[in-house]
Amino acid sequence: MKNQITDSGMTRRMFLASAAGVCGLVAANGLGLGGLAWAEEGPMAPALPFPEAALEPVISAKTIGFHFGKHTALYYANTAKMVAGKPLAAMPLDKIVLEAAKDPSAMALFNNAAQAWNHTFYWNGIKPGGGGAPTGKVLEAINGAFGGFEAFKKEFTDTAVGQFGSGWAWLVKEEGKLKVVKTANAATPMTSNQVALLTVDVWEHAYYLDYQNRRADYVTAFLDKLVNWDFVAKNLG
Ligand code: MN
Fold this sequence. Notes:
The chain is mainly alpha-helical. It has helices at 12-31, 38-41, 61-83, 93-101, 107-124, 136-146, 149-162, 208-211, 215-225, 229-236; strands at residues 167-174, 177-184, 195-201.
C-alpha cells in the first residue's frame, strides 16, 4: 500500500495522510472530522503531500530531504518506540500528545509526539504555488481579527521572528477568535485549548540551508509563496 501512486499522482499514504491523518488530528480539536488511530499509521510519518523538490526555489529539496526525511521521521520513530506495548499505542497522535502533556515524567514522549504532530501540521499547511492572501471565510475571519491581511502578515511575521530560539508561530482559534501565538521547542497550541489553523516552523533546521540567519526572509517567503489556505479553511471549520 505504501507509496502506491494513484491516478491523481498522490500516493496512497499521502491520501491517507490528507484524508484521515491530518483530519484525524484536527478532529480532536473538535472540528468533527474522521479519526485515525496511531496504531494504524505506525511509526512512519504520513507522506509529504508534495515531491521533495516541489517547493524550490522557496525551500530547497535538500532542506526538505533533511527536514522531512530525517527530522520528522525521527520524531515519529521515537514516539512509536516510546508508546510500544502501552495503551497509548492505540491512541491517535493528538491524544498521545495530550496524555503526555499531563505527565511530568513523560517529557521525552511529549517532545517527540508533539513534534511529530507539529511537523505533519506544518507539511499540510504548505504547498507549491501557495501563499498570498486567502479568500472567502478565511479572509473574512482574518480581517475581523486583525483588521486586514497586511496587519495579520505583520503580526505573524513579527511573532515568528520574535520567537527566541527554536519553536513555532501559529494562527489559532481560541474561543471562536483568531489569534497569532508562538510556542517554544515542541510546545503546541492544543494543550492551551487552541485550535491550530496554520503554523510556520522556525527551528533553524527548517530554513538554515536556504536562508541562513535570515529568518524574516523565510517567514515572508512562507506567507507569500507557500501557505495552503485550503488547509487553513478546513481547520477553521
Ligand atoms: Mn522542524
